[in-house]
Amino acid sequence: MMIIIYTIIASFLLALILGVLLGFFQKVFAVPVDEKVAKVRECLPGANCGGCGFPGCDGFAAAVAAGTAPVDGCAAGGAETAKNVGAVMGIAVDAESKVSLLACQGSKECAAARGTYNGVHSCAAAHQAVNGTKMCSFGCIGFGDCVAVCQFDALSIGEDGLPHVDYSKCTGCGMCVKECPMHLFSKVPASRKGAVALCSNRSENKPSIMKNCKAGCIKCGKCERGCPQKAIKLVNGIPEVDYSLCNSCGTCVEGCPTHVLKLVENIIG
User: Fold this and answer.
1) Is residue 37 predicted with pLDDT exceeding 90?
2) Are strands 238-241 and 98-102 parallel, antiparallel or unpaired?
3) What CA–CA distance (Å, rounded) separates 75 from 149?
4) Calpha distance 129→120 (Å, rounded)
5) What does residue 170 show for φ and ψ, rounded to 5 degrees?
6) Is residue 155 a contact partner of residue 163, using CB atoms and an 8 Å limit?
7) pLDDT at residue 263 in the model
8) Beta strands in the chain (DSSP E)
9) Strand partners, 232
10) What is the pLDDT of residue 33?
11) Looking at 1-10, 85-94, 136-145, 156-165, which range is the least confident one?
């Protein structure tokens, strides 16, 4: 019986000593915490999704406090989180929610294939090995590298062989923008209105474009000439829209012979 009592007393004393020592060493070896890091971290949603490009919310908060990450870099949190983080950092943020937009309509039905591809089913690998799987060397390869990196389940490859964006889930994190070897994705404001060209073919060879893709821009310039607001210019073979002038009249959309131009609000609305 006494052995049990002595054991209990010894265990209690040992635990007490260890507790005191742990408290002492915690103070001695404590690492100072940047208050800004803690405050930024409190503003974040805690999703730890990696959409910001950093290892979780803690990594992003530390990067923001160090000035190596933008205050509006939290994709999961959106505009409201960006404003709160900006307030902590003393930076005025006019943040707006953004989404990803694919500038290609080269589906299986529209774009001619080069042939049978037997390599690694990766857009990056196919682009490097054979310059893509379609006759249009500017178009979507369709192996879904963008789908693989999307942390929000907002992308999927459709039956037409193209990635489709679920705008109810897209946060505009930009991971697909970075991953696409063809640079077909771009981040656009979710509230944007106006025309957009869904083609990235910068070739000036019109017969080749028409042969290789039924949905390719043939550089006819009809959109530029016909725009009542003079909001469209052909830049490097692609119609670019000045959204400060465009009023979504739809003239270019109706007049485009290959239906390259669409109204953004009809795509992401």
Assistant:
1) no
2) unpaired
3) 14
4) 9
5) -65, 130
6) yes
7) 98
8) 98-102, 155-157, 163-165, 185-189, 195-197, 232-235, 238-241, 261-263
9) 241
10) 63
11) 1-10
CA distance 143 to 138: 15
**Beta-carbon contacts of residue 261 (< 8 Å; ≥ 6 apart):** 195, 196, 197, 198, 223, 239, 252, 253
What the block records as the tokens of 228 is: 């009542």
Taking only Cα atoms into account, the Rg of the chain, rounded to an integer number of angstroms, comes to: 27
What span, in angstroms and rounded, lies between the C-alpha atoms of 189 and 65?
A: 26
- In single-letter form, the type of residue at position 113 comes to A
The average pLDDT across 227-253 equals: 96
Is residue 209 within 8 Å of residue 135, measured between CB atoms? Answer: no
- The confidence score (pLDDT) of residue 72 equals 84
Contact 40, 88 (CB under 8 A): yes
DSSP codes of every residue in 51-106: TTSSSHHHHHHHHHHHTSS-TT--TTTHHHHHHHHHHHHT-------EEEEE----
Amino acid at 79: A
Chain CA centroid to CA 218, Å? 28
